[in-house]
Structures are given as C-alpha cells and as structure tokens.
C-alpha cells in the first residue's frame, strides 16, 4: 500500500480509533513524539506483534491498559536512535537499538528502556526480543531458583516459553518444557527436556525429575495451574503470565513489566550463541491486521514481526 506524503512534524503509525476487531486498525498520520529526560526516540525499522496487542485493541484489558484514542499498538521495537533525551548515557544518535515501550508500531517511538542491538542480530529478532525476554526473566526471578534446581515451563515452545528455557539453561537450571510433539526437537535444541502438555502432566514430570521440581512457569494459560502446583508441591512456586482464572489462588500472577535488564541480558546471551527466537512471519505495517489475527489464533510458529521502515 503506497503511503501519501505526510505533513511536516507528523508520522505514520498503526492506529485504532475504537475498540473492536482487527478491522478497526488503520495506518494514519499522527503527531511525532519527542524524547524527554531519560528517553530516546527511535526511528523504527521493525516492531513485534504480541498477544497483548489484540487483547488491548479488542478492549479486553481496559482496566490494566486504558487507551487514549487513537491508540497505537505495540511494545517491542528496533531501529535507529534519532533523538537522545537529557540524562541519557550509553547511546547516541545513529546507534542501532532495541526498545521496549508503548506505541512501538509507528515510524517513531519514544522509550525509557532500551539496549544496543548487536550488529549481527537481524532486525526481525531484535524486534521479537523485548517482551519475550522481559517476561521470561521476570517470571524466573519471581521463582528465585538456584543453579542445579529444576523448573517446569508449560508452553515452552512459544516465544516467552522458549526465552524462559534459554535464560534458565544459562543460569544452570534443569529445564522440563511442555509442547506438542512436533516441537520436541526444538526444545531439545535449546536445552530443555520435552514432554507433552495436558492431562497426566504431573506424572510425566515426576518420571523426568524423580528428585523433584522446584518451580514452574505457566506461559500457555491452558489450565495447567493445578497440575503445576502438584508438580512443585508448593503453589507459591508456580508463576503464571497467562492464567487469570484463580484456579490455584496461591499461584503468583505477574502482569506488569519490571525486569528491563532482560534486554541487555538477552543480547549478551545472543552474542555468546545462547539465545534466539523463532520468527513465524514478517508483515508490512499496512498488513498489521493480518498479523494480529494470526496472533489471536494462538497457532503462530514463532514471533510475528512488522516491517515499519518501508
């Protein structure tokens, strides 16, 4: 889709003027943001699509994430620094960076949290990294496990799950990951012992970890909390990022980002050959509705990425 010439001091962004289905999304002209103290502005090359994007757009998360219309989706961006706010150190205009913050799916975005992009990292992986890495590290830190202990990650082949596997392996944890059988070779390749999810999980995990399990992460939201609590023997050692049913009241639910250091940790692991994420597909910004629809099915085989630079 060809873009018309934009007005001065304006940019093109993916927007939605009301809650609703993906058809409410449109590329529109909006005012450019500018970096304030402690912030940088990124000229965006790529941005990732996450399940939270369509949930916010549909109006399912109005209490947690209220939208001032027109809303601009996205939290994960990668691009070139073109403004540096007061007090910012370690980056300069022209640097390639990975950014984490709202309104990512636009020509320009302003972020408080960022890290330098390794030169060898693709723009697609750079955009895919922030939410997956931050969420994975936050969940692992809540568990507080020590080297040599065992963690179960339910939904280990997804973006957050696979990031959690790789961070856990890097910390010296033993990892058991659930996924469909078609993803078991992938889990082995990133250091996890695979098993299928669903009924009987507690028994299968007990066979793989006869000395016990010290923590569990629910990255799937597929109703596994009771079995994960049984596996650990301690419901407080279960962290979920996706199940808000309250089926195990003692399990810990984490929703708000705080582990921003995860961006730099992920890039360091990448540079040592120990971190990667699968990319399902790359879409143009004008085709973002298709990407959100694909995300909503839950069947994407990796991250969905938007090409914003064109």
Automatic annotation (TrEMBL):
Residues 20-306 form the Enoyl reductase (ER) domain. It comes from the Bacteria. Gene3D superfamilies: Medium-chain alcohol dehydrogenases, catalytic domain, NAD(P)-binding Rossmann-like Domain. GO terms for molecular function: oxidoreductase activity. Keywords: NADP. InterPro entries: ADH-like_N (IPR013154), ER (IPR020843), GroES-like_sf (IPR011032), NAD(P)-bd_dom_sf (IPR036291), Zinc-ADH_QOR/CCCR (IPR051603). PANTHER family: QUINONE OXIDOREDUCTASE. This is NADP-dependent oxidoreductase. It comes from Glycomyces lechevalierae.
